[in-house]
Design brief:
- The chain is an all-alpha fold.
- It is built from 13 helices and no strands.
- The chain has 2 domains: 1-109, no CATH class; 133-241, no CATH class.
- The longest helix has 33 residues, at 132-164.
Length: 241
Amino acid sequence: MPIKDCVLYLINFKSLFGSQSIVSITTYRSILKLYHLLSFQSLFSNDTGVIIYLLLMLCLAVSLFLGIRNAETGIGLFFMLMFLKFRAIYILDGGDNVIEVMLPLISVGVSRPILSIKQLISWGQNISHKYPILEDIKHSLSIIVPIAIMVQVSIIYFFAGILKLQGPLWINGTALHYVLLVEDFRWTAVNFYVAKSHFIVKTLTFITVIWELTFPLFLLTKATRLFIVFFSLIVHLSIFF
């Protein structure tokens, strides 16, 4: 999800975070002043700076996806997203909030890098041998953090489904028609053509609600866990395109 969002931010950087963005630079500075962070006001002072900032975020997101130094990349991404929210406080959606909630949990989790760096790993092992309690904490976190992430995501999806049941557009199956036409939610014209089919829109709307309500149940067993994760990935990618 962070990679997808970073790509979308880069595509729409001028309207979201540039000098001519929806949220004025004056509003951004007033928010920083409220949190005593005015020294960071230059982060989005020009379009070139915005592009560099977003590219750095994208690099951190890719590193996190690959499992490279989870703690450092997760914390870095967390703070970069925080300043991004200050800059576009009225624009970023619930998905950004989910990412921000998940990043601290991922950061304290045990990193299993796809691209390993032997020197850094051996350094960590030496520290663990000197202080056995750190190894115990590391083992506990490797168990607790994945469970905490699954519980957090399950709560988010389940109550999102509950709230959708209270909306008439979700009940009559037309909600996705309007979602698919939102410019910020699509990169290509595929969603526009899908929105023209009443049958597809209605089917996808009901599937979305059912998916969110049953998401926690699918996580209970290992056999269904992989299916729901793969299906969720397809759902988010479909929104992207």
